[in-house]
Amino acid sequence: MALLYVVAGINHFLNPAVYKRIMPPYLPYPVALIYLSGICEIGFGLLLLPSVTRPVAAWLLIALLVAVFPANVQMALNYWRAHHPYLWLAVLRLPLQLVLIAWAWWYTKIP
């Protein structure tokens, strides 16, 4: 799980344009938010490694997953409006957030 978030966070810096396209238009400073979420993913992912910080990291990841959910909704809306052929993937990402939250929650119990 730590590797997943570290790699995902690094991707925010390598491909910010991908994330900018799915940022909800009502959020200010989209590029700053993309980099901030990337920093959080990297940091929280690394905090999963030591057992002493694992529960806190898991709660922080849960909060982050909730915070970025509007971007996943925006992606689905964008794909729907554009009749994008991968709309099904964007829609599949929405319940996947619940799976990721459940996975992170499992780590809240591990000392």
Task: Walk me through the structure.
The longest helix has 28 residues, at 54-81. This protein has five helices and no strands. The protein is an all-alpha fold. Helices cover 77% and strands 0% of the residues. The two termini are 16 Å apart.
Short structural summary:
The protein is mainly alpha-helical and 111 residues long. It has helices at residues 2-14, 16-20, 30-47, 54-81, 87-107. Helices cover 77% and strands 0% of the residues.
Helix content: over 70%
Structural class: mainly alpha
The profile of the biggest β sheet is: none
N-to-C SSE series?
HHHHH
Based on CA inertia axes, which overall geometry fits? Answer: globular
Instruction: State the end-to-end distance.
Output: 16 Å
Count of β-strands: 0
Mean pLDDT equals 96
Radius of gyration equals: 14 Å
Tally of distinct domains: 1
Portion in beta strands = under 5%
The low-confidence runs, each spanning 5 or more residues with pLDDT under 50, are: none
The number of helices is: 5
Present the secondary structure layout.
Elements: H1 2-14, H2 16-20, H3 30-47, H4 54-81, H5 87-107
Helix pairs in contact: 1-3, 3-4, 4-5
Features:
globular, single chain
